[in-house]
């Protein structure tokens, strides 16, 4: 059976990640959810030296209480029809070690098809640690990873933004976004960001009208390419849906994607972790990592 990992640190973000996984988002209902709590013994030793490290039985009891709370909140959120809607029952796991190392190792185990994790912790030092954990995991993950930024709504997202760069990896990201849009009967926007040294050069040295015309021409050309890209990728998967729009913008990829997501009220950004250049893993990986801190929306990273 497919296994889906949910690293759990008792934060609101982790609680929502677990709630989404239990509802089958984004990996479906044919999966075993594994609720993983990593006891960071180094943190206890170096930062929380006066605190006793809890035992596995106590932590397991806390995790069970969390699941009871999540099920109760989902029952209220989903209303009177909730009893007829299936929820996955997570398996509880407790491991001691460094969070990113443990999560990396778990993601490489057989049958693991993806993970959901909080993009923020409880605040302060913990929040910074959790943010870095998500970014470190993104660098090495070979399966899709949903980083949860919005801690409030337990409902699966219905407004999606897919960022593409013509690579094979972004094709897979677009296909995932299209599948989720169909499953949730939602809206999908597809974005290509032009991040080229040509742009600031034109703006710096060309006449204002000439610069505007040159950039408009480049934007129109890239938009035409984007429309064709979307049509080709989705042609064998039911075609392009009506509830899909395309846009091309200039700017830094991470900040532009985050800004466009906010403008469109997108709830999740789908992006590939590889890019299209020789340094693709580094460049697009860096964009995905930056989105963890730049975006308010959830980020689904597709390898």
TrEMBL record:
<comment type="similarity">
    <text>Belongs to the universal stress protein A family.</text>
</comment>
<dbReference type="InterPro" id="IPR006015">
    <property type="entry name" value="Universal_stress_UspA"/>
</dbReference>
<dbReference type="InterPro" id="IPR014729">
    <property type="entry name" value="Rossmann-like_a/b/a_fold"/>
</dbReference>
<protein>
    <submittedName>
        <fullName>Putative universal stress protein</fullName>
    </submittedName>
</protein>
<dbReference type="Pfam" id="PF00582">
    <property type="entry name" value="Usp"/>
</dbReference>
<dbReference type="InterPro" id="IPR006016">
    <property type="entry name" value="UspA"/>
</dbReference>
<feature type="domain" description="UspA">
    <location>
        <begin position="2"/>
        <end position="149"/>
    </location>
</feature>
<feature type="domain" description="UspA">
    <location>
        <begin position="159"/>
        <end position="303"/>
    </location>
</feature>
